[in-house]
What does this fold into?
Amino acid sequence: MSSFEDLLADDGRVEPRDEMPDDYRRTLVRQIAQHAHSEIIGMQPEGNWISRAPSLRRKAILMAKVQDEAGHGLYLYAAAETLGVDREDLLDQLHTGRQKYSSIFNYPTLTWADVGAIGWLVDGAAIVNQVPLCRCSYGPYARAMIRVCKEESFHQRQGFEILHTLSHGTPAQRAMAQDAVDRYWWPALMMFGPPDADSPHSEQSMAWGIKRFSNDELRQRFIDMTVPQAEALGLTLPDPELRWNADRGHYDSGPIDFTELFEVIKGNGPCNAQRMAHRVRAHEDGAWVREAASAYAAKHAARTREGAA
Ligand code: BYC
It folds into this structure.
């Protein structure tokens, strides 16, 4: 057995300088880069509401959350770089459509309640998916996930609290909360990816300890966790087939329209073009910041060298 296989068999962590198969490295770069891209594209739907948040308190909380997402992108690009790839190159692949980002961020945020639904459902789904990634076999990714999960859990609670306030407010606020949940429920379930039978990467990624559970297992875990929370909110989930199955010890649910997921992944979701155009524009507008930071770093390094001489 190679030392890589020994490490996996012992449930150890693979570190950047360890030997690893090329396909393992490629799979990690693909997943971590997609994850990083999702974090920074994920700033857009909520960023849309910063200037329209209903109070100063809500605005401050939302700004902090969106900044956290930029930070998650940063940890994840840094984790990807330990595998020998360049951040500029990853961003170029995002901007030219050669790398993906999560389908969920291609849906519009039409009302303030959508900010609540994103926090509760989207961050809730993200936590279910990401807690097992804290035990991922690649050390830098696993360690980045620990902090990300702590922050996601705050995000999920703030979304729940927004919806709780709205669902206990006026009839119009309650209707707004219900409408947001109706629109975000199915796309949140699609975040977990295609069903196991149609997931080309799952088997190998699980054998390598990158994924610890399959897409369908995590989706089921999310449904089981969320149904009682919807009851606590006094809101309904838009699936008439949702019911507790005592034999299975899980909630049964209705069929998911995966053709919608595949269409969104292909670029045909409601906001794909808008999200990408905004991202490319933001990157171009930020060129001067990157140039200034590089110039500062070069000066700083030169001064340190002079001081040492
Ligand atoms: N959207 O074989 P599969 C967040 C792709 S950020 C788009 O199951 P895998 C947050 C998949 O990439 C949320 N594409 O793949 C941020 C593959 O395509 P390629 C992001 C999807 O990798 C801000 C193909 O379909 N979280 O939470 O084994 C604010 C076949 O799929 C999707 C992560 O990235 C999708 N939903 O499993 C709030 C977590 N699903 O690469 C919240 C880390 C599948 O062959 N990633 N595809 O062209 C993962 O856990 C896994 O990559 C996935 C997919 C479970 C997503």
Q: What stands out?
A: The first helix runs from residue 3 to 9. The chain has a mean pLDDT of 97. The first strand starts at residue 243 and ends at 245.
